[in-house]
Amino acid sequence: MPSASLAANELGAVSKDGSGAWQFISDPQLYRANELAQAHGGLGAYRDAGTSNIVMRMPKAAAATLTSADTSSVGAPVDVQESRFDSTSIAAMESEVEALHTRLTHDQVIASGYDIVRDLFVVESNAPGSTFADLENRNPGQIEYIYANISRDSRHDDRQPHWGGAELWLNGQQQCTSGYSIGVGSSHYMVTAGHCYSPGTTVLGGTGINWGTILYRNNYPTTDVELIGGSSYSGQIYTSSTASMAVKGYIQSLVGSYPYCVSGAVTGTNCAYTETAENQSYTDSVGTTTGLVILQGNGGAFFGDSGAPAYGVSSGYAFIFGSVVAGEYLCGSCRVWIEPYHTRVQSLYNAGLVTG
User: Fold this and answer.
1) Which end of the chain is more exposed for a tag (fewer CB within 10 A), N or C?
2) DSSP code of 241?
3) Which of 286, 281, 125 shows the shortest CA–CA distance to 221?
4) Backbone angles phi, psi at 341, to 5 degrees
5) What confidence score (pLDDT) does residue 12 get?
6) How far apart are the C-alpha atoms of 64 and 42, rounded to whole Å?
């Protein structure tokens, strides 16, 4: 049983946000730098893997507004680096990529977004490079195309109250993974990926147990989340085929922070992920999902892992980061695309986490 006392730990700080919800900030100095950069019109901050210094990525005009007093308030060495981009130019590229979804076949996908570490707009896809030739020609030196095998990814006998990280089935085969429980008003729901089921579908567990019905899929596919309702759902997530961990709160998105865990029904639990990018997009023939975060590490996600919970661990509790949307496979250091809870799901549904 984890301790009920939540103090600062070796990774960061646990505190309550303005609404009274527990949040885990894995790197308080990086958190302050990220907030400072965005307040001055910058693109954000990350911790350099080589030097451990914090880097603030700023458009030239925005960088000029920073003072030494600003950067010293971070409490760690800060390197301010200019970017060739600003938020407007990034949004324009994202719109151009979204428009390409009409040219994709049913099995072709695009994962795209700004890479703050390399100051590039990265496009990963199993569509041919020619699909993006016009985009690259209009933005010379700013775009990197990577051919990659990516898919939207779809524990066996989970009973009420249901936990996150369990198998979800459809038509006799495993479809997805349950994510985490949220409360909206007095009702509890289970989160999974929005592409898993159509609204109104009855969701079954691995042994045919009724999990409820898909009641809400707001703003899909821009947000790839849907809510299962009509059963009971608790603040626990599977960390192995039988073991679980209680949910205590949420964790913030910070590029360069680690370690994160993903608990998928197919690939199991892996706690060796580092956040490498945020505000990413994923495009397929259905449309574009925006605002995603990339976790990268040895593991990856496979069909059946969609919806799985991504989380950090502090003092023996799980702090929810989000849920799996898509993942690479057949690779060494694989990327997994996450729909973040705090910046997306919480506001979309005016929700709070169900805690254990």
Assistant:
1) N
2) S
3) 286
4) -70, -55
5) 61
6) 11
Residue after which a domain boundary falls, among 48, 83, 118:
83
Q: Which pLDDT value is given to residue 150?
A: 80
pTM for the model: 0.76
Burial tier of 213 (Cβ tally within 10 Å: 0-12, 13-18, 19+): middle
Give the end of a domain, one of 56, 83, 110: 83
262: domain CATH number? Answer: 2.40.10.10
Strand partners, 335: 296
In this predicted structure, what is the pLDDT of residue 3?
Answer: 31
Residue numbers in the chain where pLDDT is lower than 50: 1-11, 154
- The HSE-up count of residue 276 (CA atoms within 13 Å, CB side) is 18
Write out the two tokens for 181.
Answer: 């429980």
Q: Are residues 206 and 350 in the same domain?
A: yes
Round to whole Å and give the CA distance between 327 and 334.
8
Backbone angles phi, psi at 33, to 5 degrees: -65, -40
Shared domain check, 321 and 180: yes
**Under the phi-then-psi rule, with left for phi > 0, alpha for psi from -120 to 50, and beta for the rest, what region is 299?**
left
Please indicate, yes or no, if residue 9 is contained in any of the structural domains: no
Per-residue DSSP letter, 157: -
What's the number of CA atoms in the CB half-sphere (13 Å) around residue 84? 12
Give the tokens for residue 105: 């076949």
Q: How far apart, in whole angstroms, are the C-alpha atoms of residue 222 and residue 144?
A: 23
- How many domains does the structure of the chain reveal? 2
Query: Vertex 348, ends 318 and 110: CA angle to 5°?
Result: 85
pLDDT one-digit tens code per residue, 134-169? 999 999 999 999 998 787 654 888 989 999 999 999
Strand, coil or helix: what is 133?
A: helix
pLDDT in the model for residue 297:
92
